[in-house]
Amino acid sequence: MLPAEWAPQSAVMLTWPHPGTDWSELLDQVEPVFMAIARSVLRFEHLVISCEHVIRAQELQNELNQFAQQQGLPGRVISVPAPANDTWARDHGPITVDTDDGPTLLDFRFNAWGGKFPWEKDDALNRHLANAGAFGRCPLQPVDFVLEGGSIESDGEGTLLTTSECLLTPTRNPSQDRTAIERLLSELLGADRMLWLNHGYLAGDDTDSHIDTLARFCAPDHICYVACPDPDDEHYAALAAMEEELNQFRQRDGSPYRLTALPWPDPIYDDDGQRLPATYANFLIINNAVLLPVYGVAQDDDAIAIVADLFPDREVIPIDCRPLIGQHGSLHCVTMQLPAGVVVP
Predict the structure, then answer these.
(1) pTM recorded for the entire structure
(2) Which InterPro entries match (predicted)?
(3) Alpha helix (H) residue ranges in 222-318
């Protein structure tokens, strides 16, 4: 079964930006964000970092392990030199399921959200990491099906939350309809229920409405979601329709889900005037903490307070992700958690 994100973890995976990515002219801005994420993770668990440049990979391992040792932190870094097109580990990283024999890493195909960008290096990255021993003795199972980690949410009890716009787009798996996809994900992820959102939209989003930018499980009976309160905003109609769908969803016992609306950040634009997909739903749950993207806008403090209420037993660590959304993603998008038992440095 696919565990919930709040299940015990061994590590978080990061694919480090390098000059061959779209970050080439922004490395001085984005690398500090990756470093902040890395140092925060090491407070609670290990890190697996891939980096295309051998020397940089070794530098990162040495620098971060020295930091962890000096600070007395429990986490350690495994770094692997490996080619990559980009940094979105959530979508090209492995999806780990629990089996009777222990964790198995599913290596779904990745085609850059329906062929929008180059993807061949990213699609091969998990095999590079496995061959280097980054995943220990856990098997890596190839799956001939395009699926990104950001497109699914698990409650850890057999229910998946997803969006029809993403999973049903013909540029991913054109021969698979909704019934076939449900059957496949049931077999591979142990899901016996799928909740499909048919609405939801963020300007500047390249993923065809990934669920991790829109709505997230914070407990098996509780979903937080993006809500737009401004009727004049271009997002208002789609997100209001999504909210109504969430209100119609039911748990296994027939009761409605508890729902919490997340703040709506002030609009953020790139240098060309294009609106960027800033969202507080793109947080990462790790052992004893939640890493929350913030953007230097008025709503950041409210988001921190609300997420702290959602996860009262975890420390909320805000990370300035304003540079990340310049490439149309955020904190959850650049990370992939690896459950307990996968990584043992």
Answers:
(1) 0.97
(2) Peptidyl-Arg-deiminase_porph (IPR007466)
(3) 236-248, 300-310
